[in-house]
Amino acid sequence: MEGKLQIDGVFSPVVNFAMQQNYVPVIRKLTLKNKSEEALENLKISVVASPDFAAEWQREIAGIPAGETADLGAVPLTLFPEYLYARTERVTGMLRITVSCGEEQLGEKVLPLEILAYDQWSGTQVMPEIVAAFITPNYPWVAQVVRNAAELLKQWTGSPSFTGYQSKNPHGVRLQMAAIYGALQQENIIYRPCPASFESMGQRVAMADSISTLRLGNCLDLTLLYCSCLEAVGLNPLVVFEKEHAYAGCWLEEECFPECVQDDCSVLTKRTAEGINEIALVESTCMAAGETVSFDGAEALAEQNLVCSGEFQFLVDVKRTRGSGIRPLPLRKTTVDGFIPYEEAKKEVTAAPEVREEAAKLVDVDSVPVTRQQMWERKLLDLSLRNMLVNFRATRSTLQLMADDFAKLEDALSSGAEFQVLGRPEDWEDPLRDQKIYEKENRTPALTHLIRTEFENKRLRTYLREDDVAPAMTYLCRQARTSLEENGSNTLYLALGFLKWYESEVSEKARYAPLVLLPIDIVRKSAQKGYVIRLREEEPQMNITLLEMLRQDFGMTIGGLDPLPRDEKGIDLKKVFSTMRQAVLSKARWDVVEMTFLGLFSFSQFIMWSDIRNRAEDLKRSKIVRSLMSGKMEWEPEADFPDPEKLDEEYFPGDIAVPIAADASQLAAICAAGKGKSFILHGPPGTGKSQTITNIIANALYQGKSVLFIAEKMAALSVVQKRLEKIGLGPFSLELHSNKAKKRDVLTQLQQALEIGRIRPVEDYEQQAERLQEQRTELNRYVNALHRKQPFGFSAYEAIARYEAYKGAPADVCFLPEDLENLTPEKLTEWEDRVGEVTAAAAACGGVCGHPLREMTVSVYSPGLRSGVTSRLSEYGRELSRFSEEMGAFAKAAGLLTADGSREYLEKTIALAGFLQERGDIPESLSCVPGLSEMREELSDLCATGEKRDAAREKLMKTYRQGILSFDESSARSLWEEASKSWFLPRISGQGKVLKSLRALAEDPKQVVRAEVPGTLEELRIYQENEAQVKELGKVWAERLGPLWKNGEGNWEKIRGAFADACELQRQLSALGSSGSRCGDPGRFREDAGTTALRNDWQLLQKIEQELAERTGASFEGEAHLAEMSERKLRWSRHLDGLRDWCNWVSVREKAAKAGLSAVVGACQSGAIAPEEVEDAFRRGLYAACADWSIEKEEALASFHGAMFDAKIQKFRRTCKEFEQLTRTELSAKLSARVPAPTADAAASSEIGILQKAIKSGGRMLSIRRLFDSIPNLLRMLCPCMLMSPISVAQYIDPQYPPFDLVVFDEASQLPTCEAVGAIARGNSVVVVGDPKQLPPTSFFASNQVDAEHFDQEDLESVLDDCLAISMPEEHLLWHYRSRHESLIAFSNMQYYDNKLYTFPSPNDLESKVSLIRVKGCYDRGRTKQNRAEAAAVVEEILRRLADPALSKDSIGVVTFSAPQQNLIEDLLEEALDRNPQLEAVNAGAEEPIFVKNLENVQGDERDVILFSIGYGPDETGKVALNFGPLNRDGGWRRLNVAVSRARKEMRVYSTIGPEQIDLSRTRSEGVAGLKAFLEFAKRGKEALASPIDALVTKKAGFSELVARRIRQMGYQVRTDVGCSAFKIDLAVVDPENPDSYLLGILCDGEHYREAKTARDRNMNQESVLRQLGWRLYHLWSMEWWENETGELLKIRAAIEEAAGQERMVPIETPPAEKKRFHFDRNNLEREEIPEMVPETYQVAKLESRSATAEEFCLPQNDEAVRGQMEQVLKEEAPVAKEILFRRVLAAWSITRMGARLERRLSGMLEQMEHKATQSAGQSFLWAAGMDPEAYEVFRAPEDGGFRRELDEIPPEELSAAVHALLRQQISLPKEDLVREVYRLFGFARTGASIAEAVQAGIREAEKRGYVTVEDGRIVLREDN
């Protein structure tokens, strides 16, 4: 069985006493392998040592199975210490390992090893850390050395105590080290070279006792001795090994390494570096006799060994070895008796070490606070290895400089020093290294001295040859200048210090990253001096790219470096390097390398990074940027954001420019942007974002504003650019998306704008705007009136709709208009409540019509009421019976012919009885006279005559006797009258006779006087006449009156009374049906008929009735018969059980009546309506009345006519389209008017001159940025709209220039904030357009190496997200236009937009255009990550569609979930098209070729048909892992939203996974849940969409539903509210031949019509979209329906039949918006001539020549002539200088000189004239009457060869006009050039001080007038001029 067992393991090749003392196993691992095919059992293992240095070891094991290996671990051999202790030399030994089974030996292994002497170390190859065993701090002689060192320590510090690390002061530790170092120096130990035994294994070590005796030691001996002493005083020593050398080290703080042995040199270099000083190294050999090296010197030598030798092997940390159990060797006794002390001469010992600068320790922090600005900077950084700031490479763009002290170099540069850059020294022969990087370790001391010397002379050396320096510097200088000109950013830096780092622990290649970057300028001083470098006036920077890389990739957060720490001279470089070294202490091989490079440092987004980093203050001027930085709104948004419902009212068409049709949500955004508001514009898929942006830009330009449009993707920018071009704004829009734009293209665009010419504005634009305003106002008037809430709380439309709902109810409840005058919602609510009560109360009574208790009106019920009524009813019955009997007797006695027993009859009978009882004195003769009442007038005359007679008699009897009554009055009167006519005497005689006769009859004759005779005769006449009448009447009335006559002398009043009573008696008897013949004597009748009892019983009966009336409220008045009264009594008695219900009804009835519902109560009580019909009848009557009332009150409704209204709508549509075209023309005209006319003689320094020169030269030697910097004002005039990307903005637009009025962002959800802030800061207001529910900025598929199944990248924050976070105002686009079928957007709308998008249903709305195609196949998980089956199905479908002539018209797009699936489909499609060239040609010729994209890059694209490949699914085993790539990420649902909203006509979803296979219990991802829902939707259609709970509220049947019922009655199938979104088609008639589609859509003027915000939306846009989708439409106007329902139904029937008889309409393939609406031919526009700048000619007044001397000129007779000449000059030359006026006049008089006298004369005459005067620079300027100097805008140049004014003789106002005219052509000029242009304009060839001053006055005047501004020495035309 030999060879069946294999013995292996890990064995030590040596063994010594130190290993035994520290339990180091000789056999560290022993394994036995059974090589046989059988199990080996009962095995015995033995280990025997030879020589006998260890005890035999044995062990038994049960067995080892065949082919298996048994691991026995370490073998615990027992070593004999006595043997090992006694060894003085090395010997060779062995270990024999045997394995046996019984007597059979199965295997044997012999291990040779070396047995070392007691004082031999095992060496560097075998457990080198065992050297710590030879460090013996407890040896007696070590203690003696320490005592000696204490004396030195006392001399230095005053204390002999060794405190170890207690002081926490590194310098204190160094003092202790130095004291021991000095004490060992005093021992005079002689250095000896290493003996021959110095080898890698078995090095003999001189122990402390041996050194103390022999005073000999090598480097290792001295090192171990020194370490022994250090450990003895509590310090932590280190032993450093280099090749054939060793020296000591010590921790300066209480620390140790994590491992005993460290082989990384950087762990020492970092910790011994200046500023760190955690470890001190000491060259041990310096302590030997003969050496006088100080401790500082020994440290320096040790550090030099470490840095310069390059032979470092490892170090041993003694403290760490003690922790591992390695103990010092015990002191060995010897046989030597002792030694003789040796007295040494005292030698100089070291001085105290110098204090080293200590850097602050790096404090561990979890994070470093950063500002928003710093976060943006970080996100713009490039952390890839392409970036020189992370992975520095020595290239042509870099130049290494020699520098020894970086801190001094930085200080010198900061103080303004310049350094000449020279090549390497000629005597330095080292060639360039391959890596081209020379680290500090490679320098020689001589080179260091050279560097320091050159530095003092302000020279810096490079490692290049001198001949190579100039080309290198030239290249750097030019590249830096180009970058500054092109990008506006400096990229030239001096890098100080580099971090050497590694990508991973196993990476072999070191990477270098600069630490500190100083901005540098390269200046060429002279050919001899060459190039010098100096610090730019910019802030030095820490390499934050490196900091961010360390944070992100290595989790190292380093604080305190950004901003850079400062010292008194500049950057504190020592602190920077120290901080970085401390940060990387734990990283093996990482270190800070102190070298410096001059180079160009930049990366892909450096421009934007620099824009933020270096222009922070410029950025902060923007309120939006400030808000984004602070995380909150830093300005108060204006509250008056446009209300879409008030757009038509608040915005006049001529005030805004909307060249492309816009819906209300778009128009609100356009108006808000036009008013300068900053806001977020949400633009869900297909809502017309680009169209809205185009309108926003156009309107802003129309308002005279400048616009900056920003889009990250060129595709998005191109869409807007094309739209602008189509509406005529292309020449005024400059596209600069790429930061590498071609200069020639830019100049071409500017040239086109400059040559656009002046477009003629629309003449009647304002009139057309007025017309449009009137039309839309008229249309709005109707809808407003129809839906205006009336005082009662609802509109006319609602009234009509509600009426239609109750039209079938009884029509018995009617309301009058006055009933509605004061009707309010509150009162209407009360009515509703009262009607409900009426219904309930009436129903409780079982109906109120004919109710048994109907007479009762009591409204409050109580049990007492019922009992009281019951008792009184009983008494009432009894009294009623007795009264009936008495009544019968009375009627019989009175001879009443009819006794009907009615209430009236009873009352009359009782009244008769009472009358007879009270008036019993009526003569029987009178009462029985028939027809007495007809004799009333006759009796009245009788009584009046008797009374007159009695009065006359009474008067006569007062004077005369009885005889006077028979006196002949007639004769006496005749005699008296005849005498009165005679003359005096006959008259006296005749009248005396009569007087005498009267006196004879008088009682006293004397009382009768002549004057009273006529009166007496008159009274006598009256008496005699009435007496005769009484006697005559008495013949008849004497019998009738009986005893009352008294022979004509009765009491006339009594007669009258008796007659009246008799008449009354006859009347009452007649009323009761009696002739009265039986009454006889009334007095007798009173006794015979029992009238007293009858009256008493009646009164009792009335009393009972009154009590019942008081209790019940019933009335007993009326026509009730006694029988009916008895019946009522019985009826009430029998139904008192219903008294409570009746009382409730009465109460309800009263309240209803009081509320104004008498009509309802009356109809109910009359029985016209049953209780259950009350409410419906009430509503029918109410709504009918309200509708009529509303229509009557609203003139727009009362006069409405459907056909005329349709005509108005058509007219409005035509006007809108025409006005759009006019708007484009007007807009182009406005913009062209701002373009200055090209001029050939423009000054070269003017903006127009600069541009013209650039155009001619092709921009040679002129970058785009420099061009823009040179023509900032002209650029805004030519191209007020700029279309750019964020990076091109940073590159080309200086933030210091005036900001744009408006900045618009598109696709803002994909734009990181860090890229956007630069553009935001360049605008006054910002519109952020995007959709937060779509893709954020991402790099998920940026690299093909990304594993889509394992991702941890996070989406970046977008500017849209950040603007939302600060609560920036928001506006939403709501109308969805893209989808040609509503099902294509229904899922997104419901799932992600809360169904708030207005989508439009299709005529085939009953079917879905989203379908799920299940594919049999699997997902290749873990390998290709592809789904070949799905890819093949997709490609097959593409080929099918391309081959079909009809289907090939539809564009196709493919969307995948992953990049691998995208690649597979692309590959398969390419292969298929290669096989089918004809199909390739079809695709190539398509307007929109096929695209294949993944979720990350499909946003912004759309196609007619989208083929969606899910890709993910079951693998080969059928297992479904719910990992869908980016969909699983946070926000993955947004990717799904983008993907499922790309189709216009159809979407086909290809999937190997079904919705039922996605188990949501296994994932919390919203994206996965959305995918499951989408697959369900694709599978089942709309029924898979769960409606929001609010949408599930059951709606009452509205107007459309009621109309639908009527249409259904005509035999048609009708659906109402067709559509998935808020927009619905009111009614849709199903096509009977195709039930899945609709035949006709009916649009009502109801809520859907009203909810449209503008007249255009409701009357144009909605119908336009629907007709494009294929709908046939009919408008049903509610007013027409109200007036003539039947007629409208007939029209609807006709429309249905017409639609059925015509061919079905198909959807329009391309919206008019694309083919017609945007078409704009700029060449067809009318143009007008641009007026050239031609000054007026200065006209010299031609005065009449005269000749005179000065004396003659002053004569008074010449005053008029002089004054006339002065007036002529003013008229023709004003404004004119006063001196010119005077000279002109004097010249006409041939006077050549003007003296003081002449001047006084002219001035005096001037004061008498009407004129104005202004002063400037001591010159007076005269203005004619009527001229306004402040409004003067004319300048006049001299004629060729004509009179030329001096410039100081031209008023500043005229010079101002010249300045204005010049700058209108040339935009801006430097001041000196403008002065030159002005004086040339006025005919001057050269300038002078006076000329310049005069022009400057004109410039000041122009600035005062607001024509110009002064900017950086240039005179600039103001934009509004």
Helix content: 40-55%
Largest beta-sheet details: 7 strands, mixed, barrel
- Overall pLDDT score: 83
Helix and strand content put the structural class at alpha/beta
List the helices and strands and how they pair.
Blueprint: E1 5-11, E2 14-15, H1 17-21, E3 27-34, E4 40-50, E5 57-64, E6 69-75, H2 81-86, E7 91-101, E8 104-115, E9 120-121, H3 140-157, H4 170-186, E10 190-191, E11 203-204, H5 208-214, E12 216-217, H6 219-232, E13 237-242, E14 245-251, E15 261-262, H7 266-272, E16 279-282, H8 295-309, E17 312-317, H9 318-323, H10 372-380, E18 398-402, H11 406-414, E19 419-422, H12 445-456, E20 459-462, H13 466-487, E21 492-501, E22 511-526, E23 530-535, E24 541-542, H14 544-554, H15 573-583, E25 591-600, H16 606-614, H17 616-620, H18 623-630, H19 647-650, H20 664-674, E26 679-682, H21 689-702, E27 707-711, H22 714-726, E28 733-736, H23 743-754, E29 758-759, H24 765-787, H25 796-805, H26 817-820, H27 825-844, H28 863-894, H29 903-918, H30 924-927, H31 936-957, H32 969-980, H33 984-1001, H34 1013-1041, H35 1052-1071, H36 1082-1088, H37 1091-1112, H38 1122-1134, H39 1139-1155, H40 1158-1165, H41 1174-1193, H42 1195-1198, H43 1202-1234, H44 1247-1257, H45 1264-1270, H46 1272-1278, E30 1281-1284, H47 1286-1292, E31 1300-1306, H48 1313-1320, E32 1323-1330, ...
Parallel strand pairs: 2-8, 10-12, 19-20, 26-32, 26-33, 27-30, 27-31, 28-30, 31-32, 34-38, 35-36, 35-37, 37-38, 41-42, 44-48
Antiparallel strand pairs: 1-3, 3-6, 4-5, 4-7, 7-8, 9-11, 13-14, 13-17, 14-16, 15-17, 18-20, 18-25, 19-23, 21-22, 21-25, 22-23, 22-24, 29-43, 39-40, 40-41, 45-47, 46-47, 49-51, 50-51
